[in-house]
Amino acid sequence: MDDAPLLEIKDLHVHFHVYGGILRVLDGVSFVVHRGEKVGLVGETGCGKTTTMKATLRVLPMPPARIPGGQILFQGQDLLKMRDDRLRRVRGRGISMIFQDPTAALNPVFTIGQQIRAVVRHSTEKRLSRSQIHDRMIQPIREVALPDPERMLGSYPIQLSGGMRQRVCIAMALVADPKLLIADEPGTSLDVTIQDQILRLLGRLVEEKDLSVILITHTLGIVRQLTDRVYVMYAGTMVEVAGTEELFRNPLHPYTHGLMEAVPRLTGGGVSDGIPGRIPNYLHPPPGCRFHPRCPHVMDVCRQEKPGFYRVSGDHEVACFLYRDKERSA
Amino acid sequence: MGEVIPARHSHPTISLEQVKLMERQTRRENLGRAWYKFSRNSLSLVGAAMVLLVLLLAIFAPLVAPYPEHVKPFTDFANAKLPPSWAHPFGTDEIGRDILSRSIFGFRYALWMGVVVLSLVVPPGVLLGLVAGYFQGTRIDTIIMRITDIFLAVPPLILALAIASILKPNLSNAMMAVSLMWWPWYTRLVYGLASTLRNEYFVVSAEVSGASTAHILFREILPNVISPIFTKISLDMGWVIIIGSTLSFVGLGVQPPEPGLGTMVASGAKYLPDQWWIAVFPALAIVLIVLGFNLLGDGLRDMLGAEEI
Amino acid sequence: MGFVTFIGRRIFQSIFVLLGLSILIFIIARIMPGDPARVAMGARAPDWVVENLREQMHLNDPLPVQYGYWLRDALQGDFGISLFTRRNVADDVREFLPASLELVFTSGIIAGVVGISLGAISARYKDTWIDGVLRMFSYFGVVTPAFVFAILFLLLFGLALQWLPPIGRLSDGIPKPPVITGMITVDALLAGQFATFWDAFKHLLMPALALSMGALAQEARITRSSMADNLSKDYIAAERALGIPERVIMSRFLLKPSLIPTISVFALDFAAGLSNAFLVELIFNWPGLSRYGMNAMLRKDLNAISAVILILGITFTIANIVVDLVVGALDPRIRLSAERSE
After folding, report:
1. What is the rounded distance in angstroms from the CA atom of residue A23 to the CA atom of residue A13?
2. Residues B123-149: what's their mean pLDDT?
3. Contact yes or no for B162/C275 (Cβ under 8 A)
4. Residue A305: other Cβ atoms inside 10 A
5. Which residues pair with A18 in a beta bridge?
6. Handedness of CA A144, A145, A151, A156 (dihedral sign)
7. Which of the residues C234, C255, C262, C326 would you substitute to probe the A interface, choosing the one with the greatest number of A C-beta atoms within 10 Å?
8. Could you count the other beta carbons within 10 Å of the beta carbon of residue C60?
């Protein structure tokens, strides 16, 4: 695992230019995924998880979004500087993405078949014969265990259930055999049993195809089941990264603590308070550490300086001044 | 049943006064944000300025117009058909009247038309829409909306022309004709909004607590449809003025020698292309006033978030 | 088969609406002050002649009975005699309607093609100077009354630059093609008379342009805003993320959903076209039904007025149904929910 990372995001900034000013939605995010690795990305709704991933594939609506700084290296090449036609070949084939809401991610006025066909046809530079196209359309639909593939192809999204739409999205993401799959809160919009089915399906496919995965979620239980390593994000900044077991055993950042306490525990009796306050607005983010207004351990330095990452143990890093002195040199 | 069930989680109690204060603060905050949105769009400010300018010109027309006497029966053949100059910035017409002065007075007729028609049209249109929407699915709904459909089955200008033509041609009959054609648009707009609102919790809970129909219509539903109505009024000022000037143009509205803008365009059209200014400046005056109301209306739409218009 | 039922029901409703419209027209025609029989015979006709005509026109019967007679005749295509042309109104309609349809259809095509293209360009170059210029242009298009455009075009292209013939449908000395549809351009093409077609087309172009401006601007605005709206939708991001090329997304996956609001508005634009034709035909001396109707109105020719309004009402209703059909064909959500509500 020591070879060059599959995906490396370095100091990524994303701004949204809106009425009233600039929203600094991502403020220096760094992120690494190695080959074959399954990485979790957790944080509250609105903390920039989806924005980071959409920026990676350069599918943020621009304007209003702008990327004033950072690098996104995929297999050593900077996606932000890549020409459009080359970028297009990375999309789908190199990195593929399953969007959060399958209903919004499917074009409502085209059949599933029309949409998958377009993905298949542009997944390779070769000209495919009709039967090849058809095979490549049917195969992923079978893989995601959708019943009656032929009828499925003739259906419009509105005719399918939420779970089926999610499966269609997964199928489309797998058409071109990507190396890295980004799954943005898969199944969140569905009810719990269906979500469970979807996650198990996803887990199985990832194992079978030996994919690298970025799993975005705000449910810690899912992270624990499916990932090797976890990044914790807060208000457009990374606050902590560690191996999954390590993070659950020894969460360091006060925000990570809060997140863990916000999880309903069957044994603990009822739901705890979670973290008081809400995510700050991005128009005037708090200076220094963005978490300081909500932090129970806030110190003076937190209000003035942005904390860097401190490496506390092997692969456990945390961006918090509490651990300034506990850093171990790597 | 009299048993009190203890609350599992104790909530801090809030007095009614505090709720009202919070509501007021929220409202002020929303108002501030709305104005912010409106003023960010420079075009809406331009529109508001144009409307204000036209309004002031119309109100103070006798003071502002260089030759107010040219609005009354007046002829000065020696100065007829003069091209634009410092003395007559818009030129003079076929019988020597100053076109700028007449255009300024023309704003009065245009605005008057819009104000009268909309104040005749909006209350009944909105009321019918509220009633039909609230009684959605009943016979009342069917009757009101079918009648509305009938009026909407012909483009409004055509029926307005027909009615105006049958009556005596003058401004008040033109206003009546347009009003007869215009209410269904408000009925349809409000109906669409009210029929979805009527199933909302706040309406249902008012029903359950025994509120009167009038209370539900005017205190519960109406406040929630008021922003689209205002947006539509602003846009409609423009449309009514266009229709009014069109009626005047064909001789069914403002009658000469009174300076209706459409009337002036019609009489000036005979002198095209050589004395172009006689028709062109009053036409531009129409464009100015309608553009103003449109920009304003679009700004209001952005500000109030009334996308259904 | 649900969609067929849906359209069937729409047609049924429309028939009901048109019946209502006929009552409305009848009422309007009867509120006119004065005695229609006296108006028809003129002031100098002796009283007994007028009385005879009153009897003949069923004017002595109660109003509902009068309406019954009127509707019966109208359904048979008999709208009575025009007081102005002294001919059967039905014959007049047959003669003048094709010219109006030719004009309104042409302007609709111009408005659709140019408006949608401009809107798409505007959305593509959103917030650049191109977008700014186009938006300003559409604003003026929307707020300028059709008769002002008609006058400006007549002045500019017809009189000042003399690019296009200012009035009429054909130049003097050019023979009319045999009447098939009544639309001269179409008839000339059908007869293979290309010179005639070209001449008729030049006459048609300016009034059609003047008539199309408002709708064109409206279409451009709506296309722009719906394309810009849809451009930030997740499905576009998803299609990009899956490697579908930009040109395919733009010309297919973005265009189709964005056209739905544009086409829905087309019915209203068509209505505006029909009404504005009243002015435009008058200004360009275009011998269509609208000019006929306008003249009828200015002369209080009730039979003609009623017929024109009813015909335009029917035309508009058909246009509405066609638009519903097209939108249903484009948008499975509407089609399928119509089926489900069965």
Report:
1. 11
2. 91
3. no
4. 12
5. A21
6. negative
7. C234
8. 12
Distance from C-alpha of A240 to C-alpha of C185, rounded to nearest angstrom: 74
Computed from CA positions of residues B281, B283, B284, B288, in that sequence, does the dihedral angle turn out positive or negative?
A: positive
pLDDT higher than threshold 60 for residue A317: yes
pLDDT at B271 over 60: yes
Residue with tokens 């191109």: C130
Count of CB atoms situated within 10 Å of the CB of A249: 9
pLDDT in tens, A257-308: 877 776 554 444 434 445 555 566 777 777 888 887 787 777 787 788 888 8
**Whole-number percent of chain C with pLDDT over 90:** 12
- Indicate the average pLDDT of chain B: 84
Q: How many CB atoms lie within 10 A of CB B308?
A: 13
Virtual torsion, Cα B100, B102, B104, B110, nearest 10 deg = -140
Q: Is the pLDDT of residue B206 over 70?
A: yes
N-to-C CA span, chain A: 17
Q: Which of A88, A110, A172 sits opposite C253 (nearest CB)?
A: A110
Separation of alpha carbons A44 and A276, rounded Å:
13
What residue ranges do the domains of chain B occupy?
Answer: 43-65+97-304
- A156: which 2 tokens? 């419009």
Interchain CB contact of A107 with C (< 8 Å):
yes
Average of per-residue pLDDT values in chain C:
84
The answer to whether B137 faces chain C, any CB pair under 8 Å, is no
Q: Is pLDDT of B11 > 90?
A: no
> Are the C-beta atoms of B277 and B91 separated by less than 8 Å?
yes
**pLDDT tens figures, C207-218:** 999 999 999 998
| A85 touching chain B per CB within 8 A | no
Residue A276, pLDDT score: 57
C257/A contact by beta carbon, under 8 A: yes
Q: What is the pTM of this model?
A: 0.80
Any idea what the CATH number is for the domain that residue C187 is in? 1.10.3720.10
C193 with C268, same domain: the answer is yes
8 A C-beta contact, residue C298 and residue C117: no
Report the residue of chain B nearest C290, measured CA to CA.
B158
The residue to which tokens 């979807």 are assigned: A198
Q: Are residues C44 and C163 in the same domain?
A: no
**Strands annotated E in A144-272:** 180-184, 212-217, 229-234, 237-243
| CATH number of the domain located at residue range(s) A5-94+176-326 in this protein | 3.40.50.300
Which residue ranges does chain A devote to CATH 3.40.50.300?
5-94+176-326
Question: Which has the minimum average pLDDT: A17-31, A95-109, A175-189, B174-188?
Answer: A17-31
- 3-state SS track over B217-258: HHHHHHHHHHHHHHHHHHHHHHHHHHHHHHHHHCCCCCCCCC
Query: What pLDDT is attached to residue B120?
Result: 94
pLDDT at B16: 67
Q: Scanning every residue of chain A, which has its alpha carbon at the shortest distance from the alpha carbon of C248?
A: A118
Mean pLDDT of C192-214: 89
Distances from the Cα of C147 to the Cα of A188, B255, B280, C144, angstroms: 57, 18, 11, 8
Q: By the CB < 8 Å criterion, does C74 face chain B?
A: no
Q: Which residues are bridge partners to A31 per DSSP?
A: A9
In terms of residues, how long is chain A? 330
Q: Which amino acid is at B75?
A: T
Q: What band does A330 get if pLDDT is binned at 50, 70 and 90? A: very low
Q: Does domain B43-65+97-304 have CATH number 1.10.3720.10?
A: yes
Domain of residue C26 covers 2-75
Q: Which subunits sit against A, judged by 3+ Cβ pairs under 8 A?
A: B, C
Interface test with C, best of B46, B149, B154 (most C CBs within 10 A): B154
